Protein backbone atom coordinates (compact mmCIF):
# COMPACT_ATOMS: atom_id res chain seq x y z
CA UNK A 1 0.00 0.00 0.00
CA UNK A 2 1.45 3.32 -0.98
CA UNK A 3 2.10 5.89 1.69
CA UNK A 4 -0.08 8.46 -0.04
CA UNK A 5 -2.91 5.99 0.27
CA UNK A 6 -2.07 5.48 3.92
CA UNK A 7 -2.20 9.23 4.41
CA UNK A 8 -5.51 9.44 2.65
CA UNK A 9 -6.93 6.80 4.93
CA UNK A 10 -6.05 8.73 8.06
CA UNK A 11 -8.71 10.85 9.64
CA UNK A 12 -8.04 14.56 9.86
CA UNK A 13 -7.43 14.37 13.58
CA UNK A 14 -5.03 11.44 13.22
CA UNK A 15 -3.12 13.33 10.59
CA UNK A 16 -3.09 16.42 12.74
CA UNK A 17 -1.75 14.43 15.68
CA UNK A 18 0.91 12.88 13.49
CA UNK A 19 1.96 16.23 12.11
CA UNK A 20 1.98 17.85 15.52
CA UNK A 21 4.02 15.13 17.16
CA UNK A 22 6.53 14.31 14.47
CA UNK A 23 9.82 16.11 14.28
CA UNK A 24 11.71 16.41 11.07
CA UNK A 25 15.02 14.57 11.32
CA UNK A 26 16.86 17.38 9.59
CA UNK A 27 15.06 20.38 11.03
CA UNK A 28 17.69 22.96 11.82
CA UNK A 29 17.50 24.96 14.98
CA UNK A 30 19.86 27.84 15.36
CA UNK A 31 20.01 29.85 18.53
CA UNK A 32 21.74 33.18 18.34
CA UNK A 33 22.86 34.40 21.71
CA UNK A 34 23.92 37.79 22.95
CA UNK A 35 27.36 37.46 21.41
CA UNK A 36 25.93 36.36 18.08
CA UNK A 37 27.43 32.94 18.42
CA UNK A 38 25.48 30.44 16.40
CA UNK A 39 24.69 27.01 17.68
CA UNK A 40 23.34 24.64 15.08
CA UNK A 41 21.75 21.34 15.95
CA UNK A 42 20.30 18.73 13.67
CA UNK A 43 18.14 16.02 15.10
CA UNK A 44 19.37 12.66 13.93
CA UNK A 45 16.33 10.75 15.04
CA UNK A 46 15.99 7.61 12.99
CA UNK A 47 12.21 7.85 13.04
CA UNK A 48 11.12 9.04 9.64
CA UNK A 49 8.41 11.63 9.83
CA UNK A 50 5.06 11.63 8.17
CA UNK A 51 6.18 14.18 5.66
CA UNK A 52 9.48 12.39 5.01
CA UNK A 53 7.63 9.26 4.13
CA UNK A 54 5.14 11.13 2.01
CA UNK A 55 7.99 12.82 0.21
CA UNK A 56 9.92 9.66 -0.45
CA UNK A 57 6.77 8.07 -1.80
CA UNK A 58 6.14 11.08 -3.98
CA UNK A 59 9.64 10.82 -5.32
CA UNK A 60 9.30 7.11 -6.01
CA UNK A 61 6.08 7.52 -7.91
CA UNK A 62 7.37 10.40 -9.94
CA UNK A 63 10.71 8.71 -10.46
CA UNK A 64 12.18 11.98 -11.63
CA UNK A 65 14.99 13.46 -9.63
CA UNK A 66 15.79 17.01 -10.72
CA UNK A 67 18.71 17.24 -13.08
CA UNK A 68 21.52 19.56 -12.08
CA UNK A 69 21.60 20.93 -15.60
CA UNK A 70 18.06 22.19 -15.41
CA UNK A 71 17.80 25.87 -14.87
CA UNK A 72 15.39 28.24 -13.22
CA UNK A 73 15.20 31.83 -12.14
CA UNK A 74 14.29 33.51 -8.90
CA UNK A 75 10.99 35.18 -9.45
CA UNK A 76 11.10 37.69 -6.65
CA UNK A 77 14.15 39.62 -7.73
CA UNK A 78 14.56 38.19 -11.21
CA UNK A 79 18.07 36.99 -10.43
CA UNK A 80 19.07 34.21 -12.78
CA UNK A 81 19.67 30.98 -10.99
CA UNK A 82 21.44 27.91 -12.28
CA UNK A 83 20.11 25.77 -9.50
CA UNK A 84 16.34 25.66 -9.61
CA UNK A 85 15.19 22.55 -11.39
CA UNK A 86 12.40 22.83 -13.95
CA UNK A 87 8.95 21.87 -12.72
CA UNK A 88 8.36 19.32 -15.44
CA UNK A 89 10.80 16.95 -13.80
CA UNK A 90 10.12 17.93 -10.24
CA UNK A 91 8.43 15.50 -7.96
CA UNK A 92 5.27 17.12 -6.70
CA UNK A 93 4.76 17.24 -2.96
CA UNK A 94 1.40 15.76 -2.13
CA UNK A 95 -0.27 15.60 1.24
CA UNK A 96 -3.85 14.56 1.60
CA UNK A 97 -5.89 14.95 4.72
CA UNK A 98 -8.50 12.35 3.88
CA UNK A 99 -9.58 10.07 1.11
CA UNK A 100 -12.54 12.13 0.01
CA UNK A 101 -10.74 14.94 -1.75
CA UNK A 102 -9.02 13.95 -4.99
CA UNK A 103 -5.79 15.81 -5.44
CA UNK A 104 -6.51 16.88 -9.01
CA UNK A 105 -10.04 18.17 -8.85
CA UNK A 106 -9.06 21.69 -7.93
CA UNK A 107 -10.67 21.47 -4.53
CA UNK A 108 -8.42 22.49 -1.69
CA UNK A 109 -8.23 20.00 1.13
CA UNK A 110 -9.14 21.29 4.54
CA UNK A 111 -6.44 21.77 7.12
CA UNK A 112 -7.00 19.46 10.03
CA UNK A 113 -8.41 21.64 12.76
CA UNK A 114 -6.76 21.58 16.15
CA UNK A 115 -9.42 20.12 18.41
CA UNK A 116 -10.87 22.66 20.81
CA UNK A 117 -10.46 20.99 24.13
CA UNK A 118 -10.30 24.11 26.28
CA UNK A 119 -13.97 24.50 26.92
CA UNK A 120 -15.04 24.92 30.50
CA UNK A 121 -16.58 21.79 32.00
CA UNK A 122 -20.33 22.08 31.96
CA UNK A 123 -20.49 24.45 29.03
CA UNK A 124 -21.16 22.86 25.69
CA UNK A 125 -19.29 24.80 23.05
CA UNK A 126 -19.28 22.99 19.75
CA UNK A 127 -16.45 23.32 17.27
CA UNK A 128 -17.00 26.17 14.86
CA UNK A 129 -18.88 24.80 11.90
CA UNK A 130 -17.78 27.79 9.80
CA UNK A 131 -21.30 28.16 8.55
CA UNK A 132 -22.45 31.77 8.51
CA UNK A 133 -19.03 32.66 9.78
CA UNK A 134 -17.26 35.43 7.94
CA UNK A 135 -14.50 35.49 10.52
CA UNK A 136 -12.24 33.50 8.25
CA UNK A 137 -12.31 36.13 5.58
CA UNK A 138 -11.81 38.99 7.99
CA UNK A 139 -8.90 38.25 10.21
CA UNK A 140 -9.39 41.50 12.11
CA UNK A 141 -12.08 39.88 14.27
CA UNK A 142 -14.54 42.76 14.14
CA UNK A 143 -17.21 40.15 14.46
CA UNK A 144 -16.85 36.86 16.22
CA UNK A 145 -18.48 33.53 15.53
CA UNK A 146 -21.07 32.60 18.14
CA UNK A 147 -18.88 29.85 19.49
CA UNK A 148 -16.12 32.30 20.32
CA UNK A 149 -18.45 34.73 22.01
CA UNK A 150 -19.86 31.89 24.05
CA UNK A 151 -16.43 31.43 25.59
CA UNK A 152 -16.20 34.97 26.90
CA UNK A 153 -18.22 34.79 30.17
CA UNK A 154 -16.33 31.78 31.52
CA UNK A 155 -13.01 33.24 30.46
CA UNK A 156 -13.83 36.58 32.05
CA UNK A 157 -14.76 34.85 35.30
CA UNK A 158 -11.41 33.06 35.23
CA UNK A 159 -9.55 36.33 34.77
CA UNK A 160 -11.49 37.87 37.64
CA UNK A 161 -10.40 34.98 39.87
CA UNK A 162 -6.86 35.49 38.66
CA UNK A 163 -6.95 39.16 39.64
CA UNK A 164 -8.17 38.17 43.08
CA UNK A 165 -5.41 35.58 43.27
CA UNK A 166 -2.88 38.31 42.64
CA UNK A 167 -4.20 40.16 45.69
CA UNK A 168 -5.86 42.78 43.53
CA UNK A 169 -9.35 44.15 44.02
CA UNK A 170 -11.18 43.24 40.79
CA UNK A 171 -13.83 45.84 41.62
CA UNK A 172 -11.56 48.83 41.70
CA UNK A 173 -12.24 51.25 38.90
CA UNK A 174 -9.31 50.41 36.63
CA UNK A 175 -9.96 46.67 36.79
CA UNK A 176 -13.74 46.49 36.46
CA UNK A 177 -13.69 45.72 32.75
CA UNK A 178 -10.29 44.03 32.76
CA UNK A 179 -11.53 40.42 32.95
CA UNK A 180 -13.66 40.88 29.87
CA UNK A 181 -10.96 42.81 28.05
CA UNK A 182 -8.42 40.12 28.86
CA UNK A 183 -10.78 37.38 27.71
CA UNK A 184 -11.34 39.16 24.41
CA UNK A 185 -7.63 39.65 23.99
CA UNK A 186 -6.95 35.96 24.62
CA UNK A 187 -9.60 35.01 22.08
CA UNK A 188 -7.88 37.25 19.58
CA UNK A 189 -4.48 35.75 20.33
CA UNK A 190 -5.91 32.31 19.65
CA UNK A 191 -8.26 33.06 16.80
CA UNK A 192 -6.38 30.66 14.56
CA UNK A 193 -8.24 27.79 16.21
CA UNK A 194 -11.31 28.88 14.29
CA UNK A 195 -9.68 29.18 10.92
CA UNK A 196 -9.15 26.49 8.36
CA UNK A 197 -6.98 26.44 5.28
CA UNK A 198 -9.78 26.09 2.77
CA UNK A 199 -11.63 29.15 4.00
CA UNK A 200 -8.51 31.27 4.31
CA UNK A 201 -7.34 30.40 0.79
CA UNK A 202 -10.73 31.51 -0.53
CA UNK A 203 -10.02 29.81 -3.84
CA UNK A 204 -6.93 31.90 -4.56
CA UNK A 205 -4.99 29.02 -6.10
CA UNK A 206 -4.23 29.70 -9.73
CA UNK A 207 -3.07 27.49 -12.58
CA UNK A 208 0.10 29.07 -13.87
CA UNK A 209 2.96 27.73 -15.93
CA UNK A 210 5.48 29.03 -13.45
CA UNK A 211 8.27 26.86 -12.16
CA UNK A 212 10.55 29.30 -10.40
CA UNK A 213 11.01 29.98 -6.76
CA UNK A 214 8.47 32.19 -5.03
CA UNK A 215 9.55 33.74 -1.76
CA UNK A 216 7.59 35.95 0.61
CA UNK A 217 9.79 36.92 3.48
CA UNK A 218 9.68 38.80 6.76
CA UNK A 219 6.01 38.13 7.42
CA UNK A 220 5.30 39.41 10.92
CA UNK A 221 4.20 36.73 13.33
CA UNK A 222 2.69 36.94 16.82
CA UNK A 223 2.05 33.77 18.73
CA UNK A 224 1.59 32.46 22.26
CA UNK A 225 4.01 30.14 24.00
CA UNK A 226 2.02 27.12 25.07
CA UNK A 227 4.24 26.56 28.09
CA UNK A 228 3.92 29.96 29.74
CA UNK A 229 1.01 31.65 27.93
CA UNK A 230 3.19 34.62 27.09
CA UNK A 231 3.86 35.88 23.58
CA UNK A 232 6.57 34.99 21.19
CA UNK A 233 6.89 37.02 18.05
CA UNK A 234 9.10 37.43 15.04
CA UNK A 235 9.07 36.92 11.32
CA UNK A 236 8.40 34.12 8.90
CA UNK A 237 9.86 33.58 5.45
CA UNK A 238 8.21 31.13 3.08
CA UNK A 239 9.47 29.86 -0.25
CA UNK A 240 8.01 27.31 -2.60
CA UNK A 241 8.72 25.91 -6.04
CA UNK A 242 5.42 25.73 -7.89
CA UNK A 243 4.28 22.80 -9.99
CA UNK A 244 1.91 24.67 -12.28
CA UNK A 245 -0.09 26.06 -9.38
CA UNK A 246 0.57 29.30 -7.59
CA UNK A 247 -0.95 30.74 -4.45
CA UNK A 248 -2.28 34.25 -3.95
CA UNK A 249 0.63 35.98 -2.22
CA UNK A 250 -1.38 37.30 0.71
CA UNK A 251 -2.51 33.76 1.42
CA UNK A 252 0.99 32.87 2.58
CA UNK A 253 0.67 35.54 5.26
CA UNK A 254 -2.83 34.32 6.08
CA UNK A 255 -1.51 30.78 6.50
CA UNK A 256 0.97 32.18 9.02
CA UNK A 257 -1.99 33.71 10.89
CA UNK A 258 -3.91 30.42 11.03
CA UNK A 259 -1.13 28.67 12.89
CA UNK A 260 0.55 31.48 14.81
CA UNK A 261 -2.69 32.60 16.43
CA UNK A 262 -2.78 29.54 18.64
CA UNK A 263 -0.92 28.21 21.63
CA UNK A 264 2.28 27.07 20.02
CA UNK A 265 5.87 26.00 20.09
CA UNK A 266 7.96 27.51 17.34
CA UNK A 267 9.00 24.18 15.88
CA UNK A 268 5.41 23.04 15.33
CA UNK A 269 4.40 26.42 13.96
CA UNK A 270 7.18 26.21 11.37
CA UNK A 271 6.16 22.74 10.29
CA UNK A 272 2.45 23.47 10.15
CA UNK A 273 3.02 26.43 7.83
CA UNK A 274 5.07 24.25 5.49
CA UNK A 275 2.47 21.49 5.50
CA UNK A 276 -0.32 23.96 4.78
CA UNK A 277 1.50 25.43 1.77
CA UNK A 278 2.06 21.90 0.54
CA UNK A 279 -1.63 21.11 0.92
CA UNK A 280 -2.58 24.31 -0.86
CA UNK A 281 -0.56 24.00 -4.08
CA UNK A 282 1.28 20.65 -4.03
CA UNK A 283 4.54 22.29 -5.05
CA UNK A 284 7.89 20.63 -5.74
CA UNK A 285 9.12 21.90 -2.41
CA UNK A 286 8.44 24.26 0.46
CA UNK A 287 10.86 26.06 2.75
CA UNK A 288 9.88 27.92 5.90
CA UNK A 289 12.19 29.80 8.24
CA UNK A 290 10.87 31.35 11.44
CA UNK A 291 12.86 33.71 13.63
CA UNK A 292 11.27 34.25 17.01
CA UNK A 293 11.78 36.15 20.23
CA UNK A 294 10.25 34.32 23.18
CA UNK A 295 9.09 36.59 25.97
CA UNK A 296 9.32 33.64 28.33
CA UNK A 297 13.08 33.84 27.80
CA UNK A 298 13.17 37.63 27.92
CA UNK A 299 10.89 38.81 30.73
CA UNK A 300 11.38 35.85 33.04
CA UNK A 301 13.38 32.64 33.35
CA UNK A 302 16.84 32.99 31.85
CA UNK A 303 16.13 36.63 30.84
CA UNK A 304 18.22 36.61 27.67
CA UNK A 305 16.88 39.67 25.99
CA UNK A 306 18.88 39.36 22.78
CA UNK A 307 18.40 35.70 22.06
CA UNK A 308 16.52 34.68 18.97
CA UNK A 309 15.34 31.22 17.98
CA UNK A 310 15.51 30.24 14.34
CA UNK A 311 13.64 27.16 13.13
CA UNK A 312 13.31 25.83 9.63
CA UNK A 313 11.37 23.20 7.76
CA UNK A 314 12.56 22.14 4.33
CA UNK A 315 10.38 19.85 2.24
CA UNK A 316 10.84 18.34 -1.21
CA UNK A 317 13.55 19.89 -3.36
CA UNK A 318 14.48 22.33 -0.61
CA UNK A 319 15.37 19.36 1.50
CA UNK A 320 16.97 17.23 -1.18
CA UNK A 321 18.87 19.82 -3.17
CA UNK A 322 21.41 21.90 -1.24
CA UNK A 323 21.63 24.48 -4.04
CA UNK A 324 17.91 25.13 -4.02
CA UNK A 325 18.03 25.44 -0.24
CA UNK A 326 20.98 27.79 -0.46
CA UNK A 327 19.22 29.92 -3.04
CA UNK A 328 16.26 30.29 -0.71
CA UNK A 329 18.40 31.07 2.31
CA UNK A 330 20.37 33.66 0.33
CA UNK A 331 17.13 35.36 -0.66
CA UNK A 332 15.83 35.29 2.89
CA UNK A 333 19.06 36.67 4.32
CA UNK A 334 19.50 39.40 1.71
CA UNK A 335 18.42 42.86 2.74
N1 LIG B 1 11.34 23.89 22.07
C1 LIG B 1 10.63 24.93 22.50
N2 LIG B 1 10.66 25.25 23.79
C2 LIG B 1 9.97 26.33 24.18
C3 LIG B 1 9.25 27.13 23.31
N3 LIG B 1 8.69 28.14 24.03
C4 LIG B 1 9.09 27.95 25.30
N4 LIG B 1 9.88 26.86 25.40
C5 LIG B 1 10.57 26.24 26.54
O1 LIG B 1 9.74 25.42 27.31
C6 LIG B 1 10.53 25.05 28.43
C7 LIG B 1 9.67 24.78 29.64
O2 LIG B 1 10.57 24.30 30.61
P1 LIG B 1 10.19 24.09 32.15
O3 LIG B 1 11.45 23.78 32.89
O4 LIG B 1 9.07 23.11 32.24
O5 LIG B 1 9.57 25.48 32.56
P2 LIG B 1 10.33 26.69 33.29
O6 LIG B 1 10.75 26.29 34.68
O7 LIG B 1 9.39 27.86 33.23
O8 LIG B 1 11.60 26.87 32.37
P3 LIG B 1 12.54 28.15 32.20
O9 LIG B 1 11.99 28.94 31.05
O10 LIG B 1 13.89 27.55 31.90
O11 LIG B 1 12.52 28.93 33.48
C8 LIG B 1 11.53 26.18 28.61
O12 LIG B 1 12.81 25.67 28.34
C9 LIG B 1 11.14 27.19 27.53
O13 LIG B 1 12.25 27.91 27.01
C10 LIG B 1 9.22 26.76 21.93
O14 LIG B 1 8.59 27.39 21.08
N5 LIG B 1 9.93 25.67 21.58
ZN1 LIG C 1 7.34 30.16 27.13
TrEMBL record:
It comes from the Eukaryota. GO terms for cellular component: cytoplasm. Residues 157-332 form the GTP cyclohydrolase I domain. It is an enzyme of class 3 (hydrolase). Residues 77-92 have a biased composition (Low complexity). This is GTP cyclohydrolase 1. Pathway: Cofactor biosynthesis; 7,8-dihydroneopterin triphosphate biosynthesis; 7,8-dihydroneopterin triphosphate from GTP: step 1/1. The lineage of its organism: Eukaryota, Metazoa, Ecdysozoa, Arthropoda, Hexapoda. It comes from Drosophila lebanonensis (Fruit fly). CDD domains: GTP_cyclohydro1. SUPFAM superfamilies: Tetrahydrobiopterin biosynthesis enzymes-like (SSF55620). It catalyses: GTP + H2O = 7,8-dihydroneopterin 3'-triphosphate + formate + H(+). Its EC number is 3.5.4.16. GO terms for molecular function: GTP binding; GTP cyclohydrolase I activity; zinc ion binding. The keyword Nucleotide-binding applies.
Amino acid sequence: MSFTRQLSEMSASELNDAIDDTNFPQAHILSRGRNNSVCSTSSTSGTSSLIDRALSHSEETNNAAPSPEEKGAISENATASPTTPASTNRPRLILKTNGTIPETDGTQPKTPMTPRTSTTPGSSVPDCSHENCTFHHDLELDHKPPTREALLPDMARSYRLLLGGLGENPDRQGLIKTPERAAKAMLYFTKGYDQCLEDVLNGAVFDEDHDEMVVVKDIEMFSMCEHHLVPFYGKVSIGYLPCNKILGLSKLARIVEIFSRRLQVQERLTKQIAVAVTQAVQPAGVAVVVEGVHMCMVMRGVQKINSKTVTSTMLGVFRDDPKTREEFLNLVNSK
